[in-house]
Amino acid sequence: MRALALDRPRENYLNINYSLKSWLLTTDHKRIAVLYMISITLFFFIGGIAAVLFRWELLTPQADVVQADTYNKLFTIHGVIMVWFFLIPSIPSVLGNFLIPLMIGAKDLAFPRLNLASWYVYIIGGLFTFLAIITGGVDTGWTFYTPYSSSFSNSAVVATIVGVFITGFSSIFTGLNFIVTIHRMRAPGMSWSRLPLFVWAHYATSLILVLATPVLAITLTLIGLEKLVGIGIFDPARGGDPVLFEHLFWFYSHPAVYIMILPGMGVVSEIISAFSRRRIFGYTFVAVASLAIAIIGFLVWGHHIFVGGQSPYASVVFSGLSFLVAIPSAIKVFNWTATLYKGSISFDTPMLYALGFIWLFTIGGLTGLFVASLAFDVHVHDTYFVVAHFHYIMVGSAVMAYLGAMHYWWPKISGRMYPEGWGKISAALIFFGFNLTFFPQFILGNLGMPRRYQTYPAEFQVLNVMSTAGASILAVGYLLPLIYFLWSLRSGKPAPANPWGASGLEWQVESPPPPENFEELPVVTQEAYTYPAPALAPSPEAANV
Amino acid sequence: MVDLPFFAPQASTIAGQVDLLLLALIGLSSVFTLIVVALIAYFGIKYRRGRAADRSQPPIGNVKLELSWMAGLLVLAVGTFTWASLIYLRSFNPPDKSLDIYVIGKQWMWKFQHQEGPREIDTLHVPVNRPVRLIMTSQDVIHSLYIPAFRLKYDVIPGRYTNLYFEANQTGEYHIFCTEYCGTNHSQMRGTVIVMEPRDYQNWLSGSTVSAPLSQAGQDLFTQLGCSSCHAAGASVRAPSLVALFGSQAPLEGGGSVTADESYIRESIFFPQKKIVAGYDPIMPTYEGRITEEQMLQLVAYIKSLGGGASQAAEGSSQTGTQVSTESPALTETPDAAESAGTPTQP
After folding, report:
1. How many domains does chain B fold into?
2. Contact B184/A267 with Cβ under 8 angstroms?
3. Global pTM?
4. Of A332, A378, A206, which is closest to residue B148 (Cα–Cα)?
5. Cβ atoms within 10 A of the Cβ of A154, count?
6. ipTM score of complex
7. A445 vs B: CB within 8 A
8. Nearest to B94 by CA among B135, B52, B40, B128
9. Which of residues 259-318 of B touch A (CB under 8 A)?
10. Are residues B229 and B285 in the same domain?
11. What is the pLDDT of residues A247-277, one digit of tens each?
């Protein structure tokens, strides 16, 4: 009997069934996470190709690569795809999906079939949008400002809106599932004060997903109605008000930025703690900061309208609230830094990504205060300064966190180790390429270069060339992990259950985890991040590996 | 005034204040970033795994420390916020005597209309050291008028008038950009503002081929559209008098009142049923779709020229010696209106 057990590979969620049907009809949160991972990766590269094309156009001040309309479609595709089909689902739908049940000691999410439905809804929305892009494109910018989108644009606005509208439901399903799971499915002993900060961050994110996404749906529906039946809510020729659209849109889209960054903050808390072998400094403050960011984040939308026909006094209030958001964000940065004190720090690839995150997030966050400062925002609003600022948050920080998480949990997800040397090279390339791409854009903005410009005065060319050069390095940096992750599936070293010596329940199960996660439900007796990490209960299979 | 590298030229009274704020922000942020990076580097070296260091009893938190850095940040945030807000609010204060220039944005050009008559496209002449007020609207989508050298922009929105106040303090030519994405040739919607010595500006104005002031065109249009058949004194149909209306408080049917500014006049012509003057019947037809935004500006200029509580702007212009307010309109048959406008009656 024992010899037989040794010969047969241990059963895990990947090898239990190889049929396509078993993947497409799975309700296992881990498999759904993998489905999401594949889909968002495809969308990331579509959005990335659009970016490469318009950065190429921007090498020279004149229009020489594409037509003006094509240029406008390219940056719109880039924004729409990256925001709704990559960034918003990225960490929550891939890593949150995979890890939340493992981290809280549950066998699955609360609603496994709703989870599968969310992926299908996402794919249907994605196909709709993709179809709109290839059949004609859309040229409104991802912000769909009226009355341009509702009365003037001749592009496929309605089809795109329908796609985004549908995808919104996948966000709502995921958010709802996480909230219920975190409330109801925690293992015995897993109290709120013992939850990993990754779970806290996803709890805060889910609140935003559930509360803000319906407003986007309503707003997009109004544009559709305006375009198809002419209800006249945004069209000034019918007595409507286009600025109303800006309020509605940013009521969703500003909190959406926190949907993109909060999960990343959760990832960084996990990685910093694991690679310092230390309990996170100020656990409660870091956890509460996530909730504070989510709540205050709902009250700052007006800072997108400082120069857009909003009362100056309202602008002052929105500016003040925007400054307030900086405080919980800074708390996190301070606590991550303090966690290193008296730690036992190793600089493996995930840690490099996490430290890169802290640096880039600090710059992105602080420049957020620049644009929250009313008088300065008037100057740089809708210039490259803003483009640089939000890319430091949404790419520099959020994508760094996503890739850091992918490296950190790749052994758990795939059961294989990625090549460490290449991992470090990719982290360094991305950090360098990112800064070369986007730091010059701060200067461009301060010099006055507006965003969404295909042609520009010649004096801005040098900085644009730097930016395009950086984007090329960044592109290589992003391709590398795709290549070596795929390579590692076949040729990577088999991963032990806990390659990093990290605490956390997900490291107490085999890599990859068994289909049901835990053979028997764990009982939690310790705080999160207790080091040294508890030893794994040895099993004969593990010894064999 | 110093020209800093990585800064646009400074050419308005507010530009220096904004740049000082930016320098302070850069200073504060650099200190913050350096502290974080230095601590990470120091801890990273000192507590690198495998290196001997005192790791006994690492702290798991410190409420006093957390509260004190929160308090420190709050103080800095409130300070910066207040400073930036004060500059911003000041930039919205209408100056006492401003030179009013009308702006219409359209896909993909800027149209500027001087009260004295001259019209320009994508080029704007203004005098140096004189407050200017741009009264802006769009005839299609949202645009945004941005002059980096002035550190100022404001959205140009269809269906309403927005204002941008500035005072240029350096002669020269500076970029005008549209900064709200507006369709195909958004990046071609650029122009130049030419800041001139007052004397040169006067010469430019008088050298212009269009000699009739804007309000004159408005008056012609007023007659042509038949507005005068109701709004003129002694007209058979009863409609509110427009004499001395501008800048006054117009009482509304159902209580309340509204300041009769450019936006109110525009709204009353396009959407006459929205705000009914107390004591009058809602009988005025809409002119939505019948006149262009440019013609609307002519009508507004004409009604402004009829005088009223806020006629300083017109007076301000007249001090420069141009003919702006000498056209006292034919409608001012009531002598008090002419008085309140402070201009001689029409010969």
Report:
1. 2
2. no
3. 0.91
4. A378
5. 10
6. 0.92
7. no
8. B135
9. 271, 274, 288-289
10. yes
11. 999 999 999 999 999 999 999 999 999 999 9
